[in-house]
Write a structure and sequence with these properties.
Length: about 350
Amino acid sequence: MAKLRKHAEDQFAEELENLRKQDTAVRPPNWKLSPQAVVRYLMGGKLANGFEIIPKYIGDQRLMEIAVATLTTDRALLLYGIPGTGKSWVSEHLTAAISGESTLIIQGTAGTSEEAIRYGWNYAKLLSEGPSESALVKTPMIRGMEEGKPVRIEELTRMGADVQDTLITVLSEKMMPVPELDIEIQAEQGFTVIATANNRDKGVNELSSALKRRFNTVILPTPKTSQEEINIVKTRVASLAESLQLPAEIPALQEINRIVKIFRELRHGVTEDGKTKLKSPSGTMSTAEVISVVNSGMALAAHFGDGRLSAQDIASGLVGAVVKDPVQDVVVWREYLETVVKTRQDFRDIYRACKEVRVD
């Protein structure tokens, strides 16, 4: 049966294999590719044999170079920014390119415990045999240390401070003590940690200064230009449509352009021409939300329409992305519809479709 979502190393296996064959630069211990090849995999481009690498990150190449260079040192990497800037996406592709395995992942939540980072116990064996290595349940962190592979930690600031501090020994000493067995697990070369955090969670569980010092932070910004954001959306929508096998046409560039324009104006609080100031909604209005709106519209068009994305298919997802607060955001959205969208001749169909969607 077809997988709903393939891991990066499986979905882009052909690209990674071609890069390995062409890669002649020095590779750090336990790396599948050289740092230069990892950046090429992320940024895309044509190889010497003519094979085309699809861009995974559309933005400043220097940021990816800094991120990859960090991972060749003894410091961990923290990808930081607003929700929807591609932190998890970049993290997954970094680990896929470096070690060929992106599944060593710890998801940070308010309920994440120390055991999720350190280790657990098989209680049946623990009761019958007592503490032993066979009773030890290895976490992704321990597997990464033993195999010399990078480990991903998603939403680091969602974890409690006491859980975060479990990382300090791992990142500074590169070992995990197991006092119950009077042993320690030492990290092999190639092990590192790639964590993500978003600035909307700032202050939820602020990182301690001790932990911050053990990370190099790379801030992933929102796309600088409209064209950059359009390219991101177009690439990701095509990829998701293929993996989900949606029987719908990939939206024309004009449709993506219109949705991106709405999001950028509301995000920045000003119209594209700079003439009209706008109120911004409470949500992030991120690129990830644009992709979600387009994908939702494509699903509607495929199963309840003629397969071509229309304004009616876009409207419900668009309104849902903007109106997160039922009081404040409704005012912002209605004002934007009446003062901006309504006045644009090429947005009339979106205006009419959005007016039909109830927001109260």
